[in-house]
Here is the input.
Amino acid sequence: MALTTGAGPGAAADWTAATAPGGLPLLGHLVPLRRRPLEFLTSLPQRGDVVELRMGRRTVHMVCHPDLIAQVLKDPRTFDRGGPFYEKTKLLMGNSLGNCPYADHRRQRLLVQPSFRRERIATYPRVMREEMAAETANWRPGGTIEANDRMHAVTARIGARVLLSTDIGVGHVDRILRGLPIVLRGMYKRMVAPVGLVYRLPAPEQRRFDAALADLRDLIDSIIRDYRGSAEDHGDLLSGLLAARDEDGRGLSDQEIHDQVMNFLTASTETTATALAWALQLLGRHPDCERRLQEEADAFAASGGVDSHGRDGLDYTRQVVNEVLRLYPPGWLVTRVVTVDTELGGVRLPAGSVIFYSSYALQRNGELFPDPERFDPDRWSPERIGEVPRGAMIPFGAGSRKCIGDDYAMAETTLALATIAAEWRLRPTSDTPVHPKPRALVGMGDLPMVTLRR
Ligand code: HEM
Here is the structure.
């Protein structure tokens, strides 16, 4: 990667193209991609700005330079969402914001965006803090929790209330908590199954998947029906979707709303839960950072939360969240399909080519972040933030398809950490390092932690 060339889009001569090492005759690079994808992909930016790989017989390109990634993300017409991976998500979320092609995206984004405006999500912090406080009320001093599971449960509860219905009953939330993990697991297996095969889960798992999905769908439909019947604005995201109108005054159909809700539930729960679990394990191993976070959390708890200017004083906590998202960006691999013959970084890409970038590899690149493996929340302090090269930190993507839930996710993770830190210290039960497990997200396995009251 040549950061000092001043190369930009179009300055093809300055870019370096390379082929990934170690390709095998029929398999190409499938072996390292399956066995150690994070290490493999993280090693590629030092080879070139655009690196060619083979997945079996298919050639794909990894875009490594931040300026070229920006070029891709800012041109969604040429580099569109699509490909077999996104096709498979249609079973769950139809043609909704997260997986629709360029042709449908503008209308959908215009309709959905108002539901994520700050005024509307202003009510969400109350729900987020309430749910986190309800979660920690069950912890015992000196007890052990499975922190990864607990964070998944709490973000699913928050998601159910904020996205679907703030007035949702306990029974409904339980149905979501039961069904969502089964559906997400089944979907993941389908998504990574070889392209071209009609994939079916083993019979008992398939039955559980079908039943969980049907139940989730029934629940969402019944809530949409109730909301349509009452015409009241409940202040939640679903009310926002029902009220949305496009430039021609047309709203979203019930099916479209259903698909968007599915999209939000699946996109919001695991991402924020995974980020929180990584934050807890990193803080548990960095008591100095934890102490600074606790000081802020104490001041936050004492002041009663957000002031009249919308300030919460949780600046260091946000630095911690940023550093967690740098090291473990849940959406670690982002793909695009090329729609017309084009060129990127001097590499010719015919229509139909698949390209991708990895925020995990980008954000651990030593040329962009000194000492990249170190957990150092002060990289995001006002004094040092200017040192971060443009386009080097993109855990939420960029351009017109940037994550619509970025403010929501930042609010949820920041408030959750502050709520925990005000009363608890969490410590890993063993010194064994926790290794990332790249699946649909960069997650981890079990994370047993001891809950110590401060
Ligand atoms: C830490 C938490 C999160 C991370 C790291 C994350 C990451 C991302 C990334 C990288 C993208 C862009 C993918 C691409 O360009 O192909 C994206 C898109 C999206 N995210 Fe998130 N996300 C998070 C939380 C959420 C939440 C809380 C919601 C909903 C409430 C959400 C809903 C979406 C949707 C609907 C899109 C598609 C946007 C579009 O295409 O216009 N995400 N997210």
User: Anything to note?
Assistant: The pocket of protoporphyrin IX containing FE is lined by residues 81, 97-98, 109, 263-264, 267-268, 271-272, 275, 329-331, 334, 395-397, 401, 403-405, 408-409 (CB under 6 Å). Residues 133 and 366 are 39 Å apart (CA to CA).
